[in-house]
Amino acid sequence: MSLTSPWRADFPGILALDSEGQTYLDSAATAQKPQAMLDSLFGYLSSGAANVHRAQHLPGERATRAFEATRDKAVAWLNAASREEIVFTRGTTESLNLLAFGLEHLFQPGEQIVVSALEHHANLLPWQQLALRRGLELVVLPLNASGSVDLQQAATLIGPRTRLLAVSQLSNVLGRWQPVLELITLARAQGALTVVDGAQGAVHGRHDIQALGCDFYVCSSHKLYGPDGVGLLHGRREALEQLRHWQFGGEMVLQADYQESRFRPAPLGFEAGTPPISGVIALGATLDYLSSLDAAAVAGHEAALHAKLLAGLAVRDGVRLLGEPQLALACFTVNGVHSADLAHLLTDQGIAVRTGHHCAMPLLKQLGLPGAIRVSLGLYNDGADLERFFAALDKALELLR
Ligand SMILES: Cc1ncc(COP(=O)(O)O)c(C=O)c1O
């Protein structure tokens, strides 16, 4: 398979970085945007912006229609059961905080919240803080050597006191699909609620949310080639009904009085205030663009690139991979070399990779590492990006060793 991306030209940001001599290998942090998304953003903002849901005038009606059309596209993208199940938020982090506050009333002291050892801070800290507020036990599922949640241990740790399970679908550090289906089955058998952090997983392949069977699934538009400031929270209808309102203000209210009010159900009840209108509309255009691609071709290209990345790292002396990444990214350290120094020399050569703890400090601590370098791929990357990365890596290592 050719390692030239047929979609590269659809992403003006990548072409602009090319002309600056920058090689972008940090798509797991945020992705470049397709022209279709930029056109949609410009189209909406330049043809008369208006607020949604509240105006009877033509621009307001037009904005509302375009905004709500994205909800339908998100339903199709995730195979959700209905549009009432899709809540727009500002991102994965906000969605998870919404859940941790909105579900708080369901917990009694002594009950357990179960997370895994590889969670991004966004899917750890809201639950940790909820556990501290309510006197709960936070149970951390250990990993096996390849970097997946150990299912045997999970089966013994998820028990009758488990009230909620929150796990990542695809690790932003270890690049492995997690056994979410099996974990959800274990948790549901105990009557626990289930939350899947799809921030990375949603970017790679289409996922059937109904088949996955979780109560809540969250992801961020900006990692999915869409605009920043927008997130999706999918909740099963019965799960959304258990959620208490958390932000109060315009649009989420049914009846307001000076002393008390009544609130709307999902989704609008959880979209207080003016939402990120232009971003939501442009996310719709992004989903249209992504839906128009040959999914098998994208998956094949991503797999070939990832194989090239792993093969190149494997032949370099002293390179140590974190876990056994399956797709999208690889995190590594080099024996005797400080990752921050290496990252610095890569940056000097125009290679945009990420270094540090990748918002998973407890995991890096457990691995005994102060940090690691992460190379992550988007569908616009091609073989030449990796060749530039490896040439820069060799040069940097020559200087450092
Ligand atoms: C696995 C995972 N979860 C959550 C997040 C947080 O996403 P956001 O910063 O878009 O809220 C990230 C971002 O890197 C992530 O990789």
Globally, the shape reads globular
Instruction: Provide the gyration radius in Å.
Output: 22 Å
Distance between the termini: 35 Å
Rounded mean pLDDT score = 97
Spatial strand sequence of the major β-sheet: 2-8-7-6-5-3-4
* Helix-strand topology string: HEHHEHEHEHEHEHEEHEEHHEEHEEHEH
- The amount of helix comes to 25-40%
Secondary-structure map:
Blueprint: H1 12-19, E1 23-24, H2 35-46, H3 58-78, E2 86-89, H4 92-102, E3 112-116, H5 125-134, E4 137-141, H6 151-157, E5 162-168, H7 180-189, E6 193-197, H8 209-212, E7 216-220, E8 231-235, H9 237-240, E9 253-256, E10 261-263, H10 277-292, H11 295-314, E11 319-321, E12 329-334, H12 339-348, E13 351-352, E14 354-356, H13 361-366, E15 372-376, H14 383-400
Helix pairs in contact: 2-10, 3-10, 12-14
